[in-house]
Design a protein that fits this description.
Layout lengths: L1 H5 L7 H20 L5 H8 L3 H4 L1 H23 L2 H20 L4 H26 L4 H9 L1 H33 L1 H8 L3 H15 L5 H9 L16 H16 L3 H11 L4 H27 L5 H18 L6 H30 L4 H30 L12 H4 L14 H7 L4
Protein name: Monocarboxylate transporter 2
GO molecular function, one term: monocarboxylic acid transmembrane transporter activity
Main location: membrane
Amino acid sequence: MQAKDSSPPDGGYGWVVVVSAFMVMGLTAAVLKTFGLFFVEIQQHFDELASTTSWITSVTITVFHLGAPVASSLCVQYTHRRVVITGGLLAFSGMALGFFGLNMVWLFATTGLGISFSWTPAISIVSHYFSKKRALANAIASAGECAFAFMFGPFFQWLIGQYGWKGALLIIGGIQLNICVCGVLMRPLASSYFLEASHCENETPSGNGASRTDKEDQSPITPKTFNWMLVRQPEFVLYAIFGILAAMSFFVPPLFLVPLSYSLGIDESWTASLLSILAMVDFGGRLLCGWYANLHVTKSIHLLAMAITLISTSLMLLPLANNYLSLAIFTGFYGFFFGTTVAIHITVLVDVVGMPEFDSALGLFMLIRSTGGFVGPPLAGKLRQLTAKYSLKEERGMQPSSAHKGMCHHTHRAADTPLQSYYCNAVL
């Protein structure tokens, strides 16, 4: 009976958990990705330079990643449910600080911690509930940020227009309280097994055959301590290096897609459609990858390797684009394989470290991966500054003011387009 209980349900109530995780992804990552809409209003209120305001997202993302190991450790010590509820309350608190117009660093630091405490356990518990269908479940859950971002862009603009940026923040904070509802629905699958395991160890004499059977049956259960020693495992270290390189390169193109299109002389209306293409194929790539991985035709790690190869190829070919059609084609390929990479990489992490160490591995992986995200965009910007062009087809020496007119953190223009704001603040 114990062995039956300790195996993942792979369905049933697990789908309720997936829907809850889908909602949490939307109420955390999608909110962060569309937050560029508030930049202009916040800059004017605090009378800050655009360059200073641009650090808003950076602070939030930094706290988000730094908080991941803490969130994972709390999940191990307590339950995913409690951590998600705590994250929802912290996210609301951050928005409430914005409503009262307090220091914006505290505002976004609190919000970042709330997102970290919500996102990390939500994506983690899905893997606990699924085994054979884990890839599909993770893909559906991760697609929440894409789906919600479509709605949040125009919705946030409407809120700002109706209630001002402070009122909009308070309403968004109220909406984020639904994270707590989602957390309540995340029934603590593993914690009950810990209690049963403890009970069996206390009542069954050591050396008894039943005790050994219990321990074998309980082997897939996550340990009750955070395992920092994963950094000594070669497999995890290699996968963490992959995370750094991926974050350093794969998240950069959306930041420069808009200025690249401007540098090629593409009209602004067509540029917006490029971002729409990118968003749609990203969403489709996640779902299709999850569906295909669920067929178990190809190993997840092999599927990830193929996705990385194809996304890298599309990125190498992207600079060859010299008109709207070619840029749209390469953008579509990039967005699709970016979605497949996001959908499958958590499942591969489980395969690399095993389910017992997954919670610890997820927190450490996010922390280590963040270094690539911090280094990548500035490095790409420095490369643009040195070469004075975005693509191979662009004439060297183009005026920076023209090339940068669509950049998110340097002008107010990007904040007027929800989809542009979405990709200029990419997290995952």
